[in-house]
Amino acid sequence: MGQPVVLIPGPMHPAVAAGLEAHCELIRLWQELDPEAVLAARRDEIVAVATGGTPIDGPYLDSLPAVRLVASFGVGYDRIDAAAAAERGVVVTNTPGVLDDEVADTALGLLLMTVRELGQAERYLRAGKWADGGPYPLTRATMHGRRMGILGLGRIGQAIADRVQPFGISVAYHNRRPKEVPYRYYPSLLDMAADVDTLMIVIPGGDSTRHLVDAEVLKALGPDGILINVARGTVVDEQALVDALRTNTIQAAGLDVFEHEPKVHPDLLTLPNTVLLPHVGSATIPTRTAMANLVVENLVSYLTKGTPVTPVPESTHLLDG
Ligand code: NAP
Ligand code: 8YV
């Protein structure tokens, strides 16, 4: 019997293919001259997919009937329909935990940049305005004594909470369910937004959280409010955010993710009260390598023992017993 066949639909971190090569035959679909012909010829042999962002839904899985595992690079798996996969007996895995500190560091950096206008101040210096125009204006906001509401106190949200407390920043949170943590829980996002001046978004993306942060939530956050999003752009109604920033309904926003990324709403680029990063939350060599290694671990463990290491919640019942 030949080696199991694993499909890689699009480019992904090179450590994934390097780690898998000894254990399976790989189809690097994007490198094939005629990808459709390759898929048609091999569709009944492909038992697993390793993906770094290709959308995968029910019909996609129906076209690959032998697939039993989809191993996704990244903790967020909103581009994969995990429920449709479960209905077809396909397990989905992601890469939780190994990136928490990196993303929390990015969130903290983004918060500092936004509160203290560090990007704007650096551009001021580089434009020669310091020498010609005097010191950069004092910032209205400070880190100390802020009141942060975390939308999504999970692994990364907790790592952010750990980091902000030495700044004297208080923490509250909104999840669907309360946790045993020493922070105030708000069953209502709107009520939390009204009580804080810093809204930190770290919930999963996808249909269930689309536009959870809308015009009403932004209005509740108020004119001293700062919004930070390191989760998914889809969680925020981006047009409502642009309007809120333009009318000073909120003070400023720091964003690592965008609703239609890599496209960025053109007004976000020109508004003075935004700090914008190109989805770099986990983007260091050590962390991306750890994520790639976890993709490999999931696939190898599944291919050799039938038990992947980090299945997503929608898949766990498929592995019980
Ligand atoms: P996690 O541990 O699963 O935490 C997510 C939290 O969100 C949970 O506490 C969950 O609590 C809460 N939540 C889920 N749905 C909710 C809803 N509808 N309303 C309110 N709260 C909800 O996930 P994580 O590992 O911290 O990652 C969080 C997200 O960050 C990922 O899904 C990903 O999209 C994003 N991310 C971005 C980057 C980046 O590069 N910018 C990097 C990594 C991750 P309940 O279940 O009680 O609601
Ligand atoms: C990566 C992420 O940017 O893990 C996630 O959910 O958003 C990031 O770590 C992404 O997975 C890279 O494809």
Automatic annotation (TrEMBL):
Thylakoid in keyword set: no
Entry keyword NAD: yes
SUPFAM superfamilies the UniProt entry points to: Formate/glycerate dehydrogenase catalytic domain-like, NAD(P)-binding Rossmann-fold domains
Pfam families (UniProt xref): 2-Hacid_dh, 2-Hacid_dh_C
Cellular compartments per GO CC: cytosol
UniProtKB keywords: NAD, NADP, Oxidoreductase
Occurrences of domain D-isomer specific 2-hydroxyacid dehydrogenase catalytic (ranges): 11-312
D-isomer specific 2-hydroxyacid dehydrogenase NAD-binding domain residues: 108-281
One example GO MF annotation: glyoxylate reductase (NADPH) activity
Xref: Gene3D superfamilies: NAD(P)-binding Rossmann-like Domain (3.40.50.720)
Family statement drawn from the similarity comment of this UniProt entry: Belongs to the D-isomer specific 2-hydroxyacid dehydrogenase family.
UniProt name for this protein: 2-hydroxyacid dehydrogenase
